[in-house]
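Bumping my old thread because nobody answered last time. Still need a sequence for this structure:
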């Protein structure tokens, strides 16, 4: 005969609920432990017994600390006491890993949830325990894979960076080569232009003067003949200067000019150069030498110093009018040799000053004054070879002074 649920007594209902709870406790797949406020195990379900490899008899009455590794025992007791003071349902081990230990001593990671309750017999805690070994293993494998992936990405990134760096180097080399090629093409064009102009004028002068020399020789007009012989010599000298400029620049750019330092008196070099240069000066031009001391002993390359003076003095003569004074001075300051060559010539326009040491550059006010535009570029090379500096001060139509600053000794 079936029983009507409405006719069940309160006692029967309570018993039915108890049986259901007991069934959940006994057949739950999660390990369940019930402990008192002292951490003593009161009950355990079969899943807990299987997980920790203890019998129910061995677990009941034992301290819960026997189920965790010994190194965590002290901290677990402290956590348990703190939890008892403020007990509420929560997960255990938030922020750190929690481990269990079997009867044989095998450790394994666990996830624990705590739920406190009280009854007439006292305060208790239900612990739900899950073995998360598989999950932790998967997480560890994922971390290892991620680490390996990051390492591989880093290595690939490094390879890519190196490849990009090499490509940038190749690009820079190509850019330099293209720039050099453009410069060479520009130099060729300028050379052809300058050569056609600078060579044509003196050669035409030589040819015309030669024919006149022959004519005046027949007429016994020595004065006119000598005048044209002087013109021929001047034209040949101009051609020689032009060729020397091109040859000097070529040697410098190919690294064929070597510095050979030796001890010498700069004053004597000036005294030797000035009379030679005076021979090509214009009518009435005068070159004055100023020495700060009777001797100026240095250890440099005497030939390069001489070439610097010749170039600067030749420029001063070209760009200065007749009956003007050109000054070359020698002095020392702070262990440095200071050479100055000043003139009273046409000066340099402000817009041209930044280009003065560039190859083939000629000042915009140079007009028909002969020159290749290489002299100052060559001087700059010589100065750099001796680890010095060159600068100038100039005002248009008033003159220019070039200042060469060299060490007293090349180390």
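Sorry it took so long. Here it is:
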């Amino acid at each position: 005969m079936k029983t009507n649920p409405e006719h069940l007594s309160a006692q029967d209902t309570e018993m039915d609920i108890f049986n259901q709870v007991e069934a959940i406790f006994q057949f739950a797949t999660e390990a369940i432990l019930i402990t008192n406020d002292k951490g003593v195990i009161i009950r355990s379900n079969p899943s807990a017994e299987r997980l920790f490899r203890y019998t129910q008899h061995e677990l009941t009455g034992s301290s819960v600390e026997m189920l965790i590794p010994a190194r965590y025992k002290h901290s677990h007791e402290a956590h348990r006491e703190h939890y008892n003071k403020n007990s509420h349902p929560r997960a255990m081990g938030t922020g750190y890993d929690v481990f269990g230990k079997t009867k044989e001593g095998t450790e394994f990671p666990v996830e624990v949830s705590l739920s406190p309750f009280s009854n007439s017999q006292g305060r208790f805690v239900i612990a739900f325990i899950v073995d998360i070994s598989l999950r932790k293993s998967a997480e560890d494998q994922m971390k290892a894979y991620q680490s390996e992936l990051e390492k591989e990405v880093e290595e690939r990134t490094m390879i890519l960076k190196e490849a990009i760096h090499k490509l940038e180097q190749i690009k820079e080399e190509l850019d330099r080569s293209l720039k050099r090629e453009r410069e060479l093409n520009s130099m060729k064009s300028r050379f052809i232009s300058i050569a056609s102009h600078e060579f044509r004028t003196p050669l035409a002068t030589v040819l015309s003067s030669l024919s006149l020399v022959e004519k005046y020789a027949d007429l016994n007009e020595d004065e006119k003949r000598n005048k044209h012989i002087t013109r021929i010599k001047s034209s040949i000298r101009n051609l020689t200067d032009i060729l020397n400029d091109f040859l000097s620049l070529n040697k410098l750019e190919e690294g064929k000019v070597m510095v050979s330092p030796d001890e010498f008196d700069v004053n004597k070099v000036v005294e030797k150069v000035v009379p030679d240069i005076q021979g090509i000066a214009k009518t009435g031009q005068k070159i004055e030498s100023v020495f700060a001391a009777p001797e100026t002993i240095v250890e440099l390359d005497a030939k390069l110093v001489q070439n610097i003076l010749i170039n600067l003095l030749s420029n001063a003569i070209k760009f200065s009018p007749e009956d003007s004074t050109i000054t070359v001075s020698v002095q020392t300051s702070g262990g440095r040799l200071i050479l100055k060559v000043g003139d009273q010539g046409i000066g340099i326009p402000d817009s041209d000053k930044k280009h003065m040491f560039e190859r083939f550059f000629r000042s915009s006010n140079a007009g028909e004054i002969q020159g290749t535009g290489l002299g100052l570029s060559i001087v700059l090379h010589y100065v750099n070879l001796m680890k010095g500096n060159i600068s100038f001060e100039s005002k248009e139509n008033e003159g220019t002074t070039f200042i060469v600053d060299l060490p007293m000794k090349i180390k």
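The radius of gyration is 52 Å. Let me know if any region looks off to you.
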